Amino acid sequence: MFTIKANPTFEATVRIPVPGGQSADLALTFKHMTRDKVKEFFDRAASSEDSDGALLSEIIAGWTGVDAEFSEQALEELCQNYHGAIPAIFDCYLAELSKARAKN
Fold first, then answer.
1. What does the pLDDT look like over 13-47, one tens digit per residue?
2. CA Rg, the chain, in Å?
3. How many CB atoms sit inside 10 A of residue 11's CB?
4. Distance between alpha carbon 80 and the CA centroid of its chain, in Å?
5. Are β-strands 24-31 and 9-16 bridged in parallel, bridged antiparallel, or unpaired?
6. Which residues, 6+ apart, have CB-to-CB distance to 10 below 8 Å?
7. Which of 21, 26, 44, 48 minimizes the C-alpha distance to 93?
8. What is the pTM of this model?
9. E strand or H helix at 62, and its extent?
C-alpha cells in the first residue's frame, strides 16, 4: 500500500572527494524534508552565517563507518578537511529526494 507520509529518515552513500586520491564513500542517514522545507533550507543556507556543521546537522541524522562519533563538531571537521564534502552532500541529498519523488 502506498503511504502519503514519507519515512522521517533515509540512507544514502555520498562520494566525498579526497585530495590527491580517489573519492571515499560516506554512509549517511538523512532527515527527510518536504519540498517546501527543502526550498526554505537551501534559500537560508545560501546566505546563512551558521557553521557548516550546524547547517548539515539540519539534514543529516547520523553516519556509519566513520572514525568519529556523529556530532555537529564532527561534521564541521569533515567540512574543514574535505572541501568538496558540502557540495557532494547537498547534491546527494537533493538527488535522493528527487528519486523518491520520481518513484512516487
1. 999 999 998 999 999 999 999 999 999 999 999 89
2. 14
3. 14
4. 16
5. antiparallel
6. 29, 30, 32, 96, 100
7. 26
8. 0.90
9. strand 60-64
Query: In terms of residues, how long is the chain?
Result: 104
Q: What is the pLDDT of residues 10-22, one digit of tens each?
A: 999 999 999 998 9
**Alpha-carbon torsion, ordered 19, 74, 39, 101, to 10 deg:** 80
Integer Cα distance of 76 and 16 in angstroms? 14
User: Which three three-digit cell numbers place residue 23?
Assistant: 573519492
Distances (CA, A) of 49 to 44, 54, 72: 9, 10, 15
Cβ contact 6:96 at 8 Å: no
